[in-house]
Amino acid sequence: MTVVTRVQTTAAVSGPITGGRHGWPFAASLRNAAALGYEEVEYFIEGTARRYRDVGNSTARRDGRWQAEEAGQAEFRTRMLVYRPADPARFNGTVILNWNNVTAGYDLFGAESLELFDGGFAMVFLTAQKVGIDGLPPVRQGLAHWDPERYGTLSIPSDDFAYDIFTQAALAVGTDRRREPDPLGGLDVRRVIGWGASQSAGRLATYLNAIQPLTGALDGCILAIYFGRGTALEVGDAVVNINAMPSAAPQNALMGSNLIRDDLDIPVFVVNSELEAISCYGVRQPDTDTFRYWEAAGTCHVSQQVQNTRQALQERDGLAGRPMDPHVNAVPMSLIYDAVFHHMHRWVAEGVAPRIQPKIEFAGDPPAIVRDEHGLAVGGIRLPQVEEPLAVNSAIPRGEGVFALLGGSCEPFSGARVRALYGDRAAFLDRFETAARRAVAAQVLRPRDLPLLVEEAGRLWPDG
């Protein structure tokens, strides 16, 4: 195990931040935080951030045991959107620190999780990358362009500094933080868990492999829909622009190349859809006392439910976005994420490790997912939409290009096929609820989600 001494933050926190052109924080939760017993408060964090460089070409190593050293400094100023329990007695002691995803050209993050609100977590959503502030051409939708009155003074010179910005934010909301002002409102913080999805998961993989051993800033980390490869420590002025990715064979550009180092002294949880399971197959690593790897059959990187949430955010915040695609995968990962939050808290707070779950089955050369008679993936976590299907949901894209790849597909069964499988609606719902209860018993779904899933399944039963 690596043994480190926690560094101290030099960053200054200011706030709460209010006002601006819109009068609310960018990408704020669609939920009524106050009705859920939470305060929504935004802060700025600023100071001097380090950038790091690789030592001895260590990032070429498959085992993830990378080494980094400081290579320069620059000033930064960015924002943290905080959700904290209004009643300190509700706080469970765990802060989820989210590395906001900026692949869309602006901040994306999951401030809709009922598990985080119901479970008494504090949530901190950090703009760690340059695109979150500056946006992407040709339609600039970063913070500074969306609301220059509120965010016009923010600046991140390069993504090279993002890793240290994340460290400084972790320390600014952690156990030994400064408290004037206090982003956590005096809460008794016991642990900080890093969380990132997609591009942000790749950033956090590099953070775990190269930076966490230097700082000890995190008490645990969750990587979601992670493609099995870290990002570079040094990129200079370059930023990720998904619109510039080649349309031919984008999966090849997303194949896994490294492990998460196995000598960390904190628990790490990777949770993937069927799509990232393909990318990670060559770098799958075993479950251990400090590592869990979950894969969910019949899911994909993006789902119809995610599209619906993003569209609601775009409409409220006045953002341009891609048109809705009704044919993308319709089995959301979000409910599994809720289970992961629950288990990660118990893991770091009580020492209760999450259950090891079955992996998706692969066969052949090159390896490909094994599929059943319906075309659904075999093995893996089995949500009720996969166990008692009304459609073939998978990571198989309907077209070419990165957006088709990320969306996978949903091919509904014909009415005749559904009736041949289940007979009538009542029989189907009985079987579906039984499958949902199995998922709850397997601890991959939270009990609160069962009635919502059954209700959704009833709406999807075909008429006629």
- Overall residue-averaged pLDDT value: 95
Strand tally is 13
Task: Name the overall outline.
Answer: globular
What percent of residues adopt helix (DSSP H or I)?
Answer: 25-40%
Bin the strand percentage: 15-25%
Along the chain, the helix and strand elements come as EEEEHEHHHHEHEEHEHHEEHEHEHHH
Query: What is the gyration radius calculated from CA atoms?
Result: 22 Å
What kind of assembly state do the chains in view correspond to? Answer: single chain
Distance between the termini: 61 Å
Number of domains: 2
Helix/strand/pairing class, anyone? alpha/beta
Task: For the structure shown, list the relevant keywords.
14 helices; alpha/beta; two-stranded antiparallel sheet; 464 residues
Describe the structure.
The protein is an alpha/beta fold and 464 residues long. It has two domains: 255 residues, no CATH class; 99 residues, no CATH class. Helices cover 28% and strands 18% of the residues. The strands form three sheets. A nine-stranded mixed sheet has the order 1-2-3-5-4-6-7-8-9, with helices on both faces. Strands 10-11 form a two-stranded antiparallel ribbon. A two-stranded antiparallel ribbon has the order 12-13. Helix 6 links the parallel strand 6 and strand 7. The chain starts with 11 loop residues before the first strand and ends with a helix. The model has no long low-confidence stretch (mean pLDDT 95).
